[in-house]
Design a protein that fits this description.
This protein is about 20% helix and about 25% strand. By secondary structure, the chain is α+β, with helices and mostly antiparallel strands. The chain has a domain of about 80 residues. A hairpin with a 2-residue loop joins strand 13 and strand 14. Helix 1 packs antiparallel against helix 7. The protein is flat, with a radius of gyration of 26 Å. It binds 2-acetamido-2-deoxy-beta-D-glucopyranose (2 copies). One 2-acetamido-2-deoxy-beta-D-glucopyranose binds next to loops. Keywords: Signal.
Length: about 300
Amino acid sequence: MKNIQLVFIVVLFGIVAADITVNKEKRCSCPSFIKSECDKWYDCKWSETSCQEKECKDYTTEDKCSGDCQWKGGKCIDEKKECEDMPNEESCSNFAGCGWKDNKCIEFTQCSDFIVSKAERCNVLRGENDERCQAKGVSVTTLRQKHLVVATGFQCENKVYVNCSKFVTEATCKGEATATAKCQWKSDGKCYAFELKTCRDADGFNSMCDPKYCKKDGQQCVNRSCSDLTTQALCTSIPKIDNNKAILCKWGADNKCTNAIDTTHLNEQTCNDVTFGSYHWVTNTCQQCASNWILSIVSLIILVAFI
Ligand SMILES: *[C@@H]1O[C@H](CO)[C@@H](O)[C@H](O)[C@H]1NC(C)=O
Ligand SMILES: *[C@@H]1O[C@H](CO)[C@@H](O)[C@H](O)[C@H]1NC(C)=O
């Protein structure tokens, strides 16, 4: 029994000692912020002794009045913006999930329901299940025909994806293979549907090794790591390809940047910034919000059992 507990503890410390991945989408809620953190977030406000989430009426400019609020009559009011609140084709087209039909802005139904005055507006139409659209036949119309089409509007249709493998030259290897993959020419002389899911996916694809996440290591495209950051100012985190996550880095006494294994290098000023708001300063430490409390409780129970 003790052996099992020991294994558990080793595993738990293994997890604790791993790289710290921060999730940009898991921002702390306003009430968890101290004043200096609270002041940095546009949707939070400091009220006497605590940080609170702003209400719609607290937004005094249109650009910040979004989400569950909308700008009406010079004020930000407590009413979610819907498709039918969009007064014209342009604003409708810019609002996610909506499309312009029969002079009204409606929720997306299907591509073929929409006729728009600019071809690009078919491309931005998007259904809930990420259905994409395109303008019918626009790529083959000549300039003169295009003018004629403009007069009547562009009929949208379901997006047609291409089969990359049918292209046999680099020049023709073009187009979208899926909602997320594009045709790309590989050094083996073939055209493939390409999507950067890990850095190694870019091996053999010229210039697809995205320097934001990856670096060239000889012929290979590999993950960037903290050690590639050579100044203290840059040594904060490395973004991960699986979006909205980042690995936390730490500047050492040896003037080198390495993966952080905890947040003890962060302070009241840096804690919240460096973690994209997902950690907060509390009891003089930098802690994750909405965090590993289950893990902490489990490890506490096991420790107690072990002792
Ligand atoms: C794409 O084209 C290739 C050859 O032209 C064919 O073998 C393959 O089955 C096609 N793939 C799809 C998904 O249609
Ligand atoms: C590179 O990063 C990806 C995701 O960010 C990860 O799944 C993979 O294990 C990493 N590879 C190496 C060799 O560290």
